[in-house]
Amino acid sequence: MSSRDHYHFDVVVVGAGHAGVEAALASARLGTKTALLTMSCDTVAQMSCNPAIGGVAKGQIVREIDALGGEMGRVIDATGIQFRMLNSGKGPAMHSPRAQADKKAYQFEMKWKVEQQENLSLRQELVEGIETHHGQVTGIRVAGGTVYHAPAVILTTGTFLKAIMHTGETTSEGGRAGEQSAHGMSGALLNLGFQLQRFKTGTPARINGRTIDFSKCVTQPGDEDPQPFSYLTEQIEQSQMDCHLTETTPEVHALIQANLSRAPMYTGQIESTGPRYCPSIEDKVVRFADKGSHQIFLEPEGRNTLEYYCNGISTSLPRDVQDRMIHLIPGLENADIMRFGYAVEYDFAPPTQLHATMETRRVAGLYFAGQLNGTTGYEEAAGQGLLAGINAALKVAGRDSFVLDRSQAYLGVLIDDLVTKGVDEPYRMFTSRAEYRMLLRQDNADRRLTPLGIDLGTVCHERAKSFRDYEKQVNRARAAITATRYQGNSLEEWLRRPEITWTDAEKMSPELAAMPLSRRCKRHVEVEVQYAGYIRRQEAEIAKLQKVDNVRIPESFNFAGIPQLRYEAREKLGRIRPETVGRASRVSGITPSDIAILMMYLKAGEYSQQPSD
Within a 10 A sphere around the Cβ of 330, how many other Cβ atoms? Predict the structure, then answer.
């Protein structure tokens, strides 16, 4: 095949990490001819950092991905080795599922899903450039000069753009240990006028479990009754593996302090910003100097390996310092280090350059998803990939775009935060970021989003049928507790009392106890009833705010032409160009008075055309 050969697709996805696979699968499932290009077919959906899916707020995102027809939830259910519901002692808005993964099994299972998918071609290619014509993307150019023509392209390049790895004074090119850096794409994006900045992330050492003294560690088993991520998984069948907990010591901290002069973060060797909520161990020791210890979670990487991930001591310290540090930790005195920790610096594109559809403002048909947008985490990346894949396919088909509101999903919060506020550190989702988290619980993601997925076409027949059956079950349960009375009150009124559970209600009514209801249905209805007051208040607040928030701002609106707006407001709104008043109000630095002035002009229809570039 000569360098002049060309391929023609509807959508091309660049990068086969967690964002890329969800983007490609979503696009293909909408009937769009899709190509998924990766530097190596052997690293599809590889877990570069900790071998786990879910966590606080992240678990809710995985449930939402699943509810919309994505794949992450089903794959972790099939390959997980330990399942836990975090924050189970708190209110239901805080409950977050998390699972340890068999790292290689997860990767192979996801690759298998990609390979089986109709309309999807997985190709091993080194992408070197982006083809455009008059502001519209037309394809991707790969090594050798071959072009993949497509009216929609999704970039999910992770941490590979001009990536440099640091271990002490030693540096090498690469976005992941053993893999090369991608240079051509950064230059291509800069040539198209995109702004790029630098972030950094890191990873800890991995050790051989055979050399760990677990008697000095605290055992952390999984839940006795593990809850699946996917609404299509009835039950977790496989056995679970234990994790273990140890901690650093004052001796470890003294060693790190004594070697900060060799730590890239403190010598100026690394200049970019890292994730504040997942700091390196040297950063923890400096920032929290009063703490005598920091927890370390020893997490198995799979059933057929003895490799353990040391969660909590991400580092870029030199190898000899890492070696001494590990051996000062209780239980790890004789540990054999299989891989040393390192930090990675990489280019990312500030996400205020995107529409809420994940399409770039500068080049039509070009979409960004994942860590390229300045985020961190497999779950945040997968969610962005899913939405980018959906919107790229919809655009190619000439259909309306798909954008989730902050009140509909954590995915809506994620995208809104990125495109309106931007990032000054790698973005990580937390429950505190969601104003309406009582409505956005992990137990009701399917009721919030699966009907939307059915309408879009991303939800398969099996999932649609399962959802409708579950809806009927919930409706029967609600009708039963409303109609059934005990000692003068309905069972619904009894369940509103915090001390009354569904089990208590079943004791009050043998008929209710005899109803064929799933445990998930019972728990869901119990939560909906017990927190009905909070839910109603949040729903009323949403309805009130949406009257203003959903007011559209014309694409041609000239913010610079409003003299009453402060200079900062004119500059930021003109640069970010929010599509609605709600998004404008969430742009950093925009005040209520700015929004009042904006609304005055919108209501009066007094705005001029945006000057062309």
Answer: 16
pLDDT given at position 162: 86
CA atoms within 13 A of residue 551's CA, in its CB half-sphere: 18
- N- to C-terminal Cα distance for the chain? 41
Residue whose entry in the numeric block shows the structure tokens 């040539």: 191
> How crowded is residue 169: how many other Cβ atoms within 10 Å of its Cβ?
11
Does the pLDDT at position 613 exceed 60? Answer: no
- What is the pLDDT at residue 133? 97
- Alpha carbon 602 to its chain centroid, in Å, reads 35
User: Nearest 5 degrees, angle CA 559-CA 565-CA 570?
Assistant: 40
Residues near 296 by Cβ (< 8 Å), separated by ≥ 6? 245, 246, 247, 248, 310, 311, 312, 313, 329
Residue 235 near residue 228 (C-beta atoms within 8 A): yes
Smallest CA-to-CA distance from 402 within 443, 335, 454 is with: 454
From the CA atom positions of the chain, what is the Rg in Å?
Answer: 25
Contact call for residues 259 and 315 (beta carbons, < 8 A)? no
Long-range contacts of 547-550 (CB under 8 A, 24+ apart): 548/581, 548/582, 548/599, 549/580, 549/581, 549/582, 549/585, 550/580, 550/581, 550/582
- Contacts with 516 (C-beta within 8 Å, 6 or more apart), sequence order: none
Of residues 316, 97, 54, the one with CA closest to residue 203: 316
pLDDT tens per residue across span 561-573: 898 898 889 998 9
Predicted confidence at residue 588, as pLDDT, reads 84
| pLDDT band for position 549 (cuts 50, 70, 90) | confident
Report the interhelical angle of 319-327 vs 250-258 (nearest 10°).
Answer: 170
In whole angstroms, what is the distance from residue 401 CA to residue 230 CA? Answer: 25
Tokens, residue 348:
């990312």
- Residues paired with 122 in a beta bridge: 36
Please report the domains of the chain, with CATH numbers, ordered by start residue: 6-202+346-455 (3.50.50.60), 206-341 (2.40.30.260), 478-539 (no CATH), 551-604 (1.10.150.570)
- For residues 320 and 171, the answer to whether their CB atoms sit within 8 Å is no
| Tokens describing residue 28 | 């293909």
pLDDT of residue 87: 94
- Write the CB contacts of 66 (distance below 8 Å, at least 6 apart in sequence): 72, 73, 74, 229, 230, 231, 232, 445, 446
DSSP-derived pairing of the beta strands 152-155 and 11-14? parallel
- Position 609 confidence tier, pLDDT thresholds 50, 70, 90: low
pLDDT of 3: 45
DSSP state string for 38-87? ES-GGGTT---S-SEEE-TTHHHHHHHHHHTT-SHHHHHHHHEEEEEEET
